[in-house]
Amino acid sequence: MLPLGFLLLLVCLSTARGNLSRDESQPTTSDETVVAGGTVVLKCQVEDPDDSSLQWSNPAQQTLYFGEKRALRDNRIQLERSTPNELTISISDVVLSDEGEYTCSIFTMPVRTAKALVTVLGIPQKPQIFGHEQPIDEEKIARLTCRSSGSKPAAQLRWKKGNKELKDEGTEVVEDPNGKTFTVSSRVEFRVTKEDNEAEVTCTVDHESLQNSERSTTQKLQVHYKPTAKIEPHPQYPREGEKLQLQCDGQGNPIPREFLWEKEGSDVPLQLSSDSVLIFPFLNKSDSGTYVCTATSSMGSVVAKYNLDVSDFSQLPTPHVHSTPAPPPGPSQSISHASMATASSFTPAPIQDASPVPSTSSTYHAVIGGVVAVIVFLLLSLLIVLGHYLIRHKEKPSTASVSCLGLGDAVL
């Protein structure tokens, strides 16, 4: 075991060596990182200046400031603080060429220096997406490329389709002509579906120079897909004798522009045009049948069917009167029964006529009732006039006989 006095001697020697190794006239600096276009501050400090001044010089060894004195005429470089123990300067509107080692010197014997590495970050440009210029057919592979230049160090790119992340197929980094910044490219590939039409694909660039913000570009996909079609009747429940329009509603991308109307069992097409409406000016029983609409676009054709059944008045059931209240009338008093189908036939339950008699018979009876009412009114008027005439005719003879009797009395 070492004696206590020997241990104390070792401690004193270590402390003395530490004090001897510390140079209070050695300046100190720190490395700085700045975004291109920003401002960087360079600070140099010394504990014991030994009556000497501090000096800052750039990577080209050009003196910027010697104490308070400006040495280089560059208005971007300004003095922030100058004391015997500190020399602080700032450089504004930093460019990529400002990057490098800056030197703080103090002219003691010997001269002492400290280095400060300034790193300038190149801000990446807004990314661009290529490969979306033309529409893509469904079930085909979409190949998109995102590119951003001007970053230093090289930026990172990421993809999204809607809210879903897309994994890239590879990233390429190329040095820009200035030899300082980089251009980054990223590719994605995926199979598109009908649901991808109008979907938003976003490319975002991530870089430390953006400082918690991001730059991104969004493009909408245009996907071509096969058409669909359905037939809509107007009115929905047509009646015999009415005008009927069948609307072939074609959907798709692109939208169908050609419509072929046919009736099953007929060899002659009814209509072929860009008009999707088939018109029946006056619906009758002979129009019953299945009508077929073929809608065509550049992506193909699709077939929709409509079954029309026009009933005869004589086939309507005789109505029965019940003591219970009648249900409210339907959408219309239909005597036609129709159904629709797309690609395959679909027939709903027939719609029963809700009226006791056809509407044309009701109109006919209303006219007859009006004529009868007029005749009855005329007969009643004639009877009243005739009765009045007879009453007056009876009163006149009675008055004449009284006068005659009075005259006879006078003669007698």
TrEMBL record:
UniProt KW Plastid keyword: no
Q: How is this protein named in the record?
A: Cell adhesion molecule 3
Q: Does the record bear Signal in its keywords?
A: yes
**What are the transmembrane regions?**
364-391
Question: SMART domains attached here?
Answer: IG (SM00409), IGc2 (SM00408)
Pfam families attached to this UniProt entry: C2-set_2, Ig_3
UniProt-annotated stretches for the region Disordered: 317-339
Q: Which UniProt keywords apply?
A: Disulfide bond, Immunoglobulin domain, Membrane, Repeat, Signal, Transmembrane, Transmembrane helix
Q: Which InterPro entries match?
A: CD80_C2-set, Ig-like_dom, Ig-like_dom_sf, Ig-like_fold, Ig_sub, Ig_sub2
